[in-house]
Structure formats: C-alpha cells, structure tokens
Amino acid sequence: MDPPILPNPESVPGYRRRVVIEPVQGSVRAELEDDYHRMWVTLRHDGEAITHVKSGMPRSPWTTCEGAMAALVDIFLGNRLDDPSVKRAKPLNCTHLYDLATFCAGYAGEAERVTYEVFNSDPVDGRVVTRLYRNGERLFEWVLKKGRFVMPEAAAGKGLTGIGEWLDSLPPREQEAARVLRWASMVAQGRGIEMPTGMIGADIGMIGSCHTFQPGRAQEARRKPSASVDFSHGAGPLADRAGLFARG
C-alpha cells in the first residue's frame, strides 16, 4: 500500500469548499462557496412542512444556473421536512442548491450551527489528499491514487462512486460528512478541465446531471467570465465568514 503523501497537503494548490448550516426557530439557512459557486438557501418551516423557500446565487458558473432557483421552490415548497421523494428531483435542480436545501430540511429543529470545510489537493504523482473538517475538527482524510482509494482501508481500491456500501455503514452524521466530502471531491475534478469563457454547456459531456445540463438547456448554457476562483492561496471560501471556520 502506498504511504500518504504531502507532509502538509493543504500547502499545495487544490480545491476548497466551505459550508455553513444555521438553524434558528422556524427556519434554517445554509450557504456554500467553492472554486465555482457561492450560493445560499433559506427554508422556513412549521416543524413539519416547508412553508417558504428562498435562495441566492452570488456566483455561479453557467448562464443558465439562476433558473434553478425557481425549480428549487417547485421541488421543496409545501413538502414535509422528511419527504424522501425529493431525492428523485436532484438531477433536475442545481445539485448544490439542492444539497443546501436538504441540509436546511435535515437541520430543522436543531439549535447549533454546523460548518464543513473541505480541501482536495491537486494530483501529485497521480495521488490526491482530501480532508474534511466539521466545526473545525478534522473528521476525514482520504488518499486516492489515479482515482482509487488508498486510504481509508475500508474503501481501498474503490473509486468515489463505488463507496456507497461503506458510506451506508457509517453513523448518520459521519455519513452526512462523508457524502459532503465525496461530492466535493467529485466537483474538485473540474480543476483539471479547461472551461473557457463562452464554452457551450453541452460540450462538457454531462447531459442530465443537473439543471444546466438538461437536454436542450445544455445547448443554451454558456460559461460565464471569471466563473472560477482559485482559493489555493490567500483568503479561502466564505472569507467574510472566516471566523466560523476556526480550527480546533
């Protein structure tokens, strides 16, 4: 088995993502920022059902992304907080807005703020180190070589899409965190894809994967100028809220 690489992985270029989930009485707000997105969702609820949905996209990568905000209302408004049927609608929506909305629904009635911070190194000799912190404490460190897990041992030899059984075996909150890390690790792979301003969405080959890449809409989508921000150096994502991400 290959040893872990990079004595200080977070010192090298890589993808960063931060998420904050803030429940209060009657509503929950969740926000994220990474290399390609800054988005937020607020759900209001009566303890059982979702009574109001609002979202914002201060930064999104494609000209068609903003249309997902209306789709989010259609999917979630009026549903029970624990309605499992919304899972089927994820590919029809912005997957990042959708995840924020499910965080809001899942944390309704909770009292404590939760933060997630993800780092995913760019490949070094074919290997990647990816870490997740929850509320400032490191919860996971994964090492992959050429897209296959080296660490943890329970996932060794599998790819990111092949660890569902292992994820299902984790306690609920660890499972949530691991799914956050897996999804962020998939998004991080975009750093290796050239996506120039004006690129047609259909040309990226992800038809059906989200709101923008639905058939027909993907042909209309264009890559926005300055769509990507490299947080490898300097201020990280959600820099205006950096105090929430202090390490333990």
The gist of it:
The chain is of the alpha+beta class and about 250 residues long. It has one domain (about 15-215).
Shape: globular
**How helical, in percent, are the residues?**
10-25%
Helix/strand class: alpha+beta
C-alpha-based Rg, rounded: 18 Å
Mean pLDDT: 93
How do the strands of the widest beta sheet line up side by side? 4-3-2-1-5-6-7-8
Approximately what portion of the residues adopt beta-strand conformation? 25-35%
How far do the termini sit from each other? 30 Å
What are the secondary-structure elements, in order, as H or E?
EEEEHHEEEEHHH
Estimate nothing, just give the exact number of structural domains.
Answer: 1
Number of H/I helices: 5
Oligomer: single chain
Spans of at least 5 consecutive residues whose pLDDT stays below 50 are none
Task: Count the beta strands.
Answer: 8
What does this structure look like?
This protein has 248 residues and is α+β, with helices and mostly antiparallel strands. The chain has one domain. It contains 5 helices and 8 strands. It has helices at 68-76, 95-106, 164-168, 172-188, 217-220, and strands at residues 14-24, 27-34, 38-45, 50-59, 114-121, 127-134, 137-145, 148-151. The protein has an 8-stranded antiparallel beta sheet with strand order 4-3-2-1-5-6-7-8, with helices on one face. The chain starts with 13 loop residues before the first strand and ends in a 28-residue tail after the last helix. The mean pLDDT is 93.
